[in-house]
Amino acid sequence: MSYTQSKFGTFKFGERKFGMNVSITESVVINEEVLLKHNDAYILCRTESVAVSESLARDIEYKPTLSDSLSISEDLAKGLVIPLSDELSTISDTLANHTDLNISDSVSIAEVAEIEYVDGREAKSEWRLLVKNGSGDTIASLTNARKRWLTQKLNKESEAGFILDADDDNCNTTILAVGVNELHIEYNGTLIWAGQIVSTKKIANGNDTYWEVLAKDWVALLSKRFCGVEDLREFVTTDAGTVAWTLIDETQSLTNGDFGITEGTIEASLNRSATYDKKNVLGAITELSNMGKDGEANYGFDFEITPLKVFNVYYPYKGTIRNDVVFRYPGNCENFEAFVNSWDIVNQEWGLGVHWTGVDAVVSRADATSQVTYKRREAIKTYGDVSVLAFLQDMVYQDVQWNKDPSTVIKFTSRVDAKTGILDYAVGDGVTVICDKFDIDEWLWVYERKIDIGDNDEAVVSLLVGN
Fold first, then answer.
1. What is the pLDDT confidence band of residue 12, given thresholds at 50, 70 and 90?
2. What burial letters (b/e) apply to 323-344, b meaning 16+ CB within 10 Å?
3. What is the mean pLDDT of the chain?
4. What is the largest CA-CA distance in the chain?
5. Do 371 and 356 meet the contact criterion of CB atoms below 8 Å apart?
6. pTM of the model
7. Which of 57, 111, 267, 346 sits at 20 to 30 Å (Cα–Cα) from 260?
8. Is it the case that residue 447 has pLDDT exceeding 70?
9. Which of 63-72, 211-220, 292-301 has the lowest average pLDDT?
10. How far apart are the C-alpha atoms of 235 and 258, rounded to whole Å?
């Protein structure tokens, strides 16, 4: 018996079952002997061909079996996570059979994943956290670190940190050696932060076990050094930046004292005559940075120790006005806080020092204009390690100049965009800040920057700016 009908009820093709009528372009003669009947349906088991209409073909979910290689469109590649083996040009049958693909033409697999070699094989990222030993050799790349963050501060010490799971191969006291090894943070190949690993905290919380790691920059290391300990260290009419570098150089010349900090650009500022008696080195440099000239509109300097351990002094300030860097709320700022404070006004100060003869010295400075507006706002400060009268006068005068008027500090959290890239500005630069709600539209100096790096590499930047 022969069948010449052009319609079938239900049939199987390969392993796919289709429950719809199929239009055949021409009659197909099928002998009864080649038909098998199962569950009231005929199964086509010969090699005769069947033409399937385009509308049905579109509904077929096809999973390809790949033996050689597969080209993947760029759009697909962006959302595809591929476990990488030694050969990137071949995707195994196992992977192909478990991946739903919408394939267009072709794209090189190199556009899907770039490989960087440090101490192993890792996926390309905008951020890299490297651990180096005291000789500057890279000993680990922390590709699995999470909750990464760093701070940058003008004329102050800064910090950075991260969390690393306890079962990570790099999570051990050899790699994360506190007080010895260094943390270096790169962004798109540029080193933007470096310092020494100073502490690890081991935490177990249910099934989550990890180490919380903290590092401090090279500026912070100077807080662990003192000058004028065995003998007074005196400077007479010496440029302030030169005094600062000399203190660093001398402490590094001591036995086991070399941090590796080198001299960079020392811009000439103001001459100082200072005597240091058991004085903290970072404290001494900070005082020089903040100090003006008694009775004059001259200020101290800005300083930095770069991630490459270079000490620089800038006069009168560090940084450049970046008019093209714009932070706006609402816009690329997620929040905005403007703090105007009059409570800390000081327009009358007495500074207490110690003369080299042991007699107490008292210096009084005031600002009459501020007192007329805000009345007297007094303070007494002790400078127990200042024994030079002119030095004490400069310090007290500068205190009043900094604090005679209300202060304005602006804080906000911003996203990284085309106008506020991480490398487009630095701490010390002037940037444009706009908040229509508070009628703020001006350029302000960046004093501090904190960068929180998400697990997806997206950075959130918190800034502290002021005039």
1. very low
2. eebbbbbebbbeebeeeeeeee
3. 82
4. 129
5. no
6. 0.73
7. 267
8. yes
9. 63-72
10. 23
Task: Answer positive or negative: Cα dihedral of 348, 353, 359, 363.
Answer: negative
Mean pLDDT of 134-161: 97
The two tokens of residue 318 are 């560090």
- Which residues are within 8 A (CB) of 243 and not within 5 positions of it... i.e. 6 or more apart? 235, 272, 274, 284, 288
Q: What is the pLDDT of residue 42?
A: 54
3-state secondary structure the chain: CEECCCCCCCEEECCEEECCCCCCCCCCCEEHHHEEEECCEEEECCCCCCCCCHHHHCCCCCCCCCCCCCCCCHHHHHCCCCCCCCCCCCCCHHHHCCCCCCCCCCCCHHHCCCEEECCCEEECCCEEEEEECCCCCEEEECCCCEEEEEEEECCCCCEEEEEEECCCCCCCCCCCCCCCCEEEEEECCEEEEEEEEEEEEEEEECCEEEEEEEEEEHHHHHHHCEECCCCCEEEEEEEHHHHHHHHHHHHHCCCCCCCCCEEEEECCCCEEEEEECCEEHHHHHHHHHHCCCCCCCCCCCEEEECCCCEEEEECCCCCCEEEEEEEEECCCEEEEEEEEECCCCCCEEEEEEECCCCCEEEEEEECHHHHHHHCCCEEEEEECCCCCHHHHHHHHHHHHHHHCCCEEEEEEEEECCCCCCCCCCCCCCEEEEEEHHHCEEEEEEEEEEEEEECCCCCEEEEEEEEC
pLDDT at 32 over 80: no
Residue 54 CB burial class (10 angstroms; 0-12, 13-18, ≥19): exposed
Residues facing residue 440 across a β-bridge: 435
Quote the pLDDT of residue 199. 98
Q: Nearest CA to 467 among 443, 434, 449, 450?
A: 443
CA distance 83 to 85: 7
**218-260: per-residue pLDDT in tens?**
999 999 999 999 999 999 999 999 999 999 999 999 999 999 9
Name which of 159, 139, 296, 142 is nearest 220 in CA terms.
159
Angle formed by the axes of helices 281-290 and 240-252, nearest 10°: 170
Picking from 135-139, 215-219, 414-418, 444-448, which range would have the lowest pLDDT averaged per residue? Answer: 414-418
Residue 104 clears pLDDT 60, i.e. is over it: no
Each residue of 304-362: pLDDT tens digit? Answer: 999 999 999 999 999 999 999 999 999 999 999 999 999 999 999 999 987 655 667 89
Residue 366 tokens, joined: 């005031």
